[in-house]
Write a structure and sequence with these properties.
By secondary structure, the chain is an alpha/beta fold. It has helices spanning 16-28, 31-38, 42-56, 72-96, 110-117, 121-127, 206-212, 229-237, 247-256, 285-299; strands at residues 61-64, 67-70, 102-108, 131-137, 151-156, 163-177, 197-200, 225-226, 242-246, 260-278.
Length: 300
């Protein structure tokens, strides 16, 4: 018996060019900006949008000044279009590559990616040459359905919706500063309160937890606030204050002598590092290989 698959009505199938133009304009709010991103002319993008709206029989955008704003139907449609384009991209990449490998698109946190993961990736490349790891920075959780990412490095708790988790490690922090600020580690940790303390946006109570772990309850002196550990580490190198850094960030600076321990005491942050990936998506061979390798690295 011959089995045939139902073919979708071709009149309802827009071209990939039209869908790509539609998605870019929806994201950027401008046909001109979309044209620049896609290496097309503005008129070519406008023609694709007009053809798509004509094919669907609806308006996808309304003009507000110089901005193109999605209509309610357009907003609903672009969510489906993005998912379809992502699936098509993954399928096209997969069919061209080794079935055992392919690309792995990984979202990373800047400090963890730079100081812990990147130095180890050569080992993964040597043991899994069939897998290409692409790294991009994201600072907060996101919906995997709206992105091209296969997995992400997450800090905090197991609170990322609709994902599976691989626990990697807790975050242990140390107090560090330039040698010119504190020459030798303070025997009394209360002495650290006489210096400017630097803070990280995502760890606003880091110093409070560090001090309370030593049974110190005191008002904190003022200090600069940073959005990334790497920037805060450089500020500490230049003597701008005392920083609480994860050990994997602090160690290279300590080994080179650019930073010294302001106190011998360490403390664990309130969260841990995890590898997370979408629960409702079939796991690729690339992700399986990377997850297995990463588990061994975290345990070593």
């Amino acid at each position: 018996m011959r089995i045939t698959h139902m073919q979708p009505a071709r009149r309802f199938l827009p071209s990939t060019n039209a869908l790509t133009c539609f998605e870019a304009v929806a994201r950027l709010g401008s046909a001109t900006d979309a044209a620049a991103e896609l290496s097309l002319t503005q008129s070519a993008v406008s023609r694709q949008l007009k053809a798509l709206e004509g094919q669907l029989g609806i308006e996808l955008f309304e003009r507000r000044g110089r901005q193109l704003v999605l209509t309610a139907r357009g907003a609903a449609y672009v969510k489906e279009v993005r998912t379809i384009l992502q699936h098509l991209t993954r399928a096209s990449v997969a069919v061209r590559t080794d079935a055992r490998g392919g690309a792995l698109n990984l979202s990373i946190l800047p400090a963890f990616g730079m100081h812990w993961l990147a130095p180890r990736l050569q080992d993964f490349a040597q043991t899994h040459p069939e897998v290409t790891v692409n790294l991009s920075t994201r600072l907060a959780p996101f919906d995997f359905r709206d992105t091209h990412f296969d997995a992400a490095i997450h800090f905090g708790r197991e609170d990322w919706p609709a994902t599976d988790y691989l626990p990697l490690m807790p975050e242990t922090v140390v107090a560090v500063c330039a040698p010119s600020l504190i020459a030798t580690p303070l025997s009394d940790p209360r002495g650290i309160l006489s210096h400017d303390l630097m803070h990280l946006e995502t760890r606003p109570r880091g110093w409070v937890r560090w001090l309370r772990s030593l049974d110190i309850d005191a008002s904190l002196p003022p200090g600069m606030v940073f959005d990334q550990f790497s920037t805060m580490a450089q500020a500490a190198v230049h003597g701008l204050g005392v920083a609480l850094l994860p050990t994997f960030v602090a160690d290279p600076f300590l080994n080179s002598g650019q930073l010294v321990l302001a106190s011998p005491h360490t403390n664990q942050s309130i969260g841990s590092y995890f590898l997370v990936w979408p629960r409702d998506r079939e796991e690729s061979h690339s992700l399986t290989s990377f997850r297995t390798w990463l588990r061994k690295q975290a345990r070593s």
